[in-house]
Amino acid sequence: MGTTDEANSLRLEGNDHFRAKRYHNAVNAYTKSLQCRLTAEALSNRAQAYLCMKQSEKALMDARKAIAMDPFSIKGRYRHAMALINLELYEMAFDDLEKILEIDPNNKETQKMKEAIKDKVSQVRILPNIIPPSPCTSYQFLFDYTTLKTLPEMFAEYFLSIHCADYKAILGEVIETDMISVLVEGYHKILTPENFLRIIDSLVQLGSVPRFDIASMFLDADDKQALRGLLQRGELDEARKTLIERLYDL
């Protein structure tokens, strides 16, 4: 780690490269800045550089981290929305744009973009009648979630198809509170004596992904009651029961 001054100097160097449209150089400078000091501003700037390089998934991850560090970062949230739009995740992008307008109701750029994607958001999405294959990327998981979030049973089966060893790579930067809520609801519906321990292990391993602490923090009383109910539906050793209770603050 370097000093704050070093981090800021490298970020400004990145800005110079960006203005000159040397986007690869800008990314390198922002990365060095982040190695010195992790800041929402440098993450947001690197996200914009990735957007200009048509690397929307990387832009999404950086913008998401920037928002986690500074929920009121308008630039970070707008770049997050732009990455989602590029990935055709319009509903999630629309939510981002609405959050920006809650902070800055007169933001004309955001108003214009919200209007531009309104029709895409309002289009009726055809609900899947089969469970999608296990995702290989965070983007694929996000895309599948937009179609499965109103189908808790299918989402739960889909989630169980993901190898626990892949949770960190696929879910680490994208897991959100609403996803956990839908998952718990779905697990209640598909739980059997045969898959009980798989479901418990899935919940334990989910607790190890980087964003879990933030996502689980906002689970409501109903979610936690549902989790307690899950624990009572099978034979469970005390160690795992205690671990689940600690991870989910039950």
Automatic annotation (TrEMBL):
Gene Ontology annotations for the cellular component aspect, listed alphabetically: protein folding chaperone complex
Per-repeat ranges for TPR: 40-73, 74-107
Family as reported in the entry's similarity comment: Belongs to the RPAP3 family.
Classification lineage: Eukaryota, Metazoa, Ecdysozoa, Nematoda, Chromadorea
Keyword Repeat carried by entry: yes
Keywords attached to this entry: Repeat, TPR repeat
Keyword Chloroplast set for record: no
UniProt cross-references to Gene3D superfamilies, sorted A to Z: Tetratricopeptide repeat domain
SUPFAM superfamilies to which the protein is assigned, alphabetical: TPR-like
Domain (RNA-polymerase II-associated protein 3-like C-terminal) ranges: 135-224
Species the sequence originates in: Parascaris univalens (Nematode worm)
PANTHER family noted in UniProt: RNA POLYMERASE II-ASSOCIATED PROTEIN 3
Protein name as it appears in the record: RNA polymerase II-associated protein 3
